[in-house]
Write a structure and sequence with these properties.
The protein is of the alpha+beta class. The protein folds into two domains: about 45 residues; about 140 residues, VirB8 protein (Nuclear Transport Factor 2, Chain: A). Helix content is about 45%, strand content about 35%. Strands 3-4-5-6 form a four-stranded antiparallel beta sheet, covered by helices on one side. Strands 1-2 form a two-stranded antiparallel sheet. A hairpin with a 5-residue loop joins strand 3 and strand 4. The longest helix is centred in the N-terminal third of the chain and has 44 residues. This is Conjugative transposon protein TraK. InterPro entries: Conjug_transposon_TraK (IPR022276). It comes from Parasediminibacterium paludis. Keywords: Membrane, Transmembrane, Transmembrane helix.
Length: about 200
């Protein structure tokens, strides 16, 4: 009788240990499965698929701080192209200037008002002049905020009889603002000034 009770006690102890091992193993497997699920969801959320020409292309999301230099330089480039690209058409000029003013503060508006008062845009229309700009390089300091920049560009002023090439150097600061359709990079140019704008050469057409 005593031996039978001892066997039952041993069996019960073995069953208890086995059950405990199974419970711990299930808990470990469940935790691992949850961890892998969260990791998979995070990885899926960091992927963006772009449909281009009927093909799905995979893109990856990244922190804004990783893209600040690229986005800031593109913002500066877009602003200068909108502000300085002119054609002898009042609607084209107004459309470009409007786009540019969404990307900068009142310093750009003051520059536009000064040029308008001096009759610059009226002369462009009256003289059938086109103006193009190419941003050659942009230096950017992201170590301090707002971010200081200096933009180096080349202007081409195309007249009926000649083409004038000019150098353009501007500087200013960038601060963060909310993104929108009119300002997709979420920057605003402040204290924008022109440092240098001189003729390099004139070519007859």
């Amino acid at each position: 009788m005593f031996k039978k009770m001892q066997n039952i006690d041993t069996s019960f102890r073995h069953i208890r240990i086995f059950t405990l091992v199974v419970v711990i193993a299930c808990a470990i497997i469940s935790c691992f499965a949850i961890f892998k699920s969260f990791r998979l969801v995070y990885e899926m959320q960091s992927k963006v698929y772009i449909l281009a020409n009927g093909k799905a292309l995979e893109a990856y999301a990244s922190d804004r701080k990783d893209n600040i230099p690229v986005e800031a330089k593109d913002h500066i480039k877009n602003f200068h192209q909108y502000f300085f690209t002119l054609d002898p058409d009042e609607k084209v000029i107004q459309a470009n200037i409007t786009k540019a003013l969404y990307l900068a503060d009142g310093s750009a508006k003051r520059e536009y008002d000064n040029l308008k008062e001096q009759g610059y845009y009226a002369n462009v229309i009256a003289g059938n002049i086109s103006q193009e700009i190419k941003v050659d390089s942009t230096s950017l300091n992201i170590d301090s905020y707002p971010f200081y920049f200096r933009c180096y560009a080349t202007q081409h002023i195309i007249r009926t009889t000649s083409t004038v090439t000019r150098s353009l150097i501007t500087e200013g600061y960038l601060r963060n603002v909310g993104r929108s359709d009119n300002n997709p990079h979420g920057f605003l140019i402040e204290r924008w000034t022109t440092i240098d704008n001189k003729d390099l050469k004139t070519e007859n057409r």
